[in-house]
Automatic annotation (TrEMBL):
EC number: 4.2.2.n1
Protein name from the UniProt record: peptidoglycan lytic exotransglycosylase
Catalytic reactions on record: Exolytic cleavage of the (1->4)-beta-glycosidic linkage between N-acetylmuramic acid (MurNAc) and N-acetylglucosamine (GlcNAc) residues in peptidoglycan, from either the reducing or the non-reducing ends of the peptidoglycan chains, with concomitant formation of a 1,6-anhydrobond in the MurNAc residue
Signal peptide: none
Organism field: Qipengyuania polymorpha
Domain named Lytic transglycosylase MltA: residues: 133-295
Entries under SMART domains matching the protein: MltA
Keywords of this entry: Cell wall biogenesis/degradation, Lyase
Length: 394
């Protein structure tokens, strides 16, 4: 999930209890993004009224799928606090109640229940992510040798013994206790590839291609196409706590991709180089110390960080400090394919700040192509329950 040359996202979550935190980011490091708004949350940013909701150019099919996505979000947003500071749980009762029984035009639902709000100047930047489909097997077999690990029991959060009490703020870091009983960093990618977890951590499946699996990990979820033709959906259950390094930037700096090479600065270009240079592929992929652990899912789609399935061209990843989970967002981007209504249902490690969005494109070859090339500027309007802006201005 997550766009090289612009593909930045990506797909969700983490923690020793397998509850989603934040999808890991896919960022080639070669795309200039807008300067961030100097505010910690949307509430601290400049908020202004957007265009009258009646003038928004909603399209029937788009509004219909967005309404379905909004309904799926209601069971969650009615019972969680909005860290952006823009809304309260009670604010969502009217639109969620209306959505549950709405039988009319979907565009009229959004016109009746919401108002548009601009954060800062509304200048937006959007990338894309998708659900990869790769070859895999539930059991190890010839041609299926890449382990898909479940969350390790020894990966925990704790404070290092030598960390002063005054510095112990927020959540403790992820790590493990070594044989001497010391809390240390967890194994990084190169150690895991070399077998550090062999026989110690459950393997839920086996992938056929290490390069494909590397990019599935960055997306945070995916489909395994099984030898018998079946499909196994896997979702993010945690991360090793080690640094995520976007390999696109060092590859470009080394002259491996980009101008003057046969490999464009896109996800397809990176994958092409890794496949054509197998003796160096592990060296490059191991620059990224992060490793993602998975669980099997039986949901209709991959789970976003709101813990509801995300769907193509409906779900968008946001920074929840600037966009309330469940809120509709109207995007008007230079890449017209991203224009329309989206519902905030996910987040990602590279999705930070106001008006930063990561659009979800589902699975399949076209999803991979669109997400891999999505890197677009434009304008964003939040749709908040009617009366929100007036209340905040009091």
């Amino acid at each position: 999930m997550h766009r090289l040359a612009g593909l930045v996202a990506a797909i969700s979550l983490a923690g020793c209890t397998a509850i989603p935190d934040a999808r890991p980011p896919l960022d080639s490091g070669v795309v200039d993004q807008p300067e961030p708004i100097p505010a910690d949350t949307a509430l601290a940013a400049t908020l202004t009224a957007g265009p009258p909701i009646e003038t928004m150019p909603f399209v029937d099919w788009d509004a219909g799928s967005a309404l379905a996505a909004f309904k799926r979000s209601c069971d969650k947003i009615l019972f969680r606090d909005d860290v952006s500071g823009l809304t309260r749980r009670i604010d969502w009762q009217a639109p969620c109640g209306a959505a549950a029984n709405w039988s009319g035009d979907a565009a009229d639902f959004f016109r009746a229940q919401f108002e548009t709000v601009v954060v800062g100047d509304g200048s937006a930047f959007a990338t894309g992510y998708y659900e990869p489909e790769i070859q895999g097997s539930r059991v190890q077999a010839p041609g299926y040798e890449v382990p898909v690990y479940a969350y390790p029991e020894d990966l925990v959060r704790a404070w290092p013994d030598d960390m002063p009490e005054a510095e112990r703020t927020g959540r403790p870091p992820l790590g493990r206790y070594n044989e001497e009983g010391e809390f240390v960093q967890y194994y990084e990618r190169s150690e895991i590839v070399a077998g550090a977890l062999d026989g110690k951590v459950p393997v839920i499946a086996w992938a056929a291609d290490p390069v494909e699996f590397f990019f599935l990990q960055i997306q945070g979820s995916g489909l395994l196409r099984l030898p018998d033709g079946g499909v196994m959906r896997i979702g993010y259950s945690g991360q090793n706590g080690r640094e995520y390094v976007a390999i696109g930037r060092p590859m470009r700096e080394q002259g491996l991709i980009g101008d003057g090479t046969d490999y464009p600065t896109s996800m397809q270009g990176l994958m092409g180089w890794l496949r054509d240079n197998p003796t160096r592929a592990d060296e490059i992929m191991n620059l990224n110390k992060s490793w993602i652990f998975f669980r099997e899912l039986d949901t209709e789609g991959p789970l976003g960080s709101l813990e509801v399935p995300v769907f193509r061209q409906d779900s968008v990843a946001v920074d929840p400090k600037f966009v309330p989970y469940g809120a509709p967002v109207w995007l008007d981007m230079e890449a017209d394919v991203a224009d329309g209504l989206w519902i905030a249902q996910d987040t990602g490690g590279a999705i930070k700040g106001a008006n930063r969005f990561d659009t979800f494109w589902g699975n399949g070859a076209d999803a991979r192509e669109i997400a891999g090339g999505m890197s677009s500027s434009g304008k964003a309007y939040l749709l908040l329950p009617k009366g929100t802006l007036a209340r905040l201005e009091q």
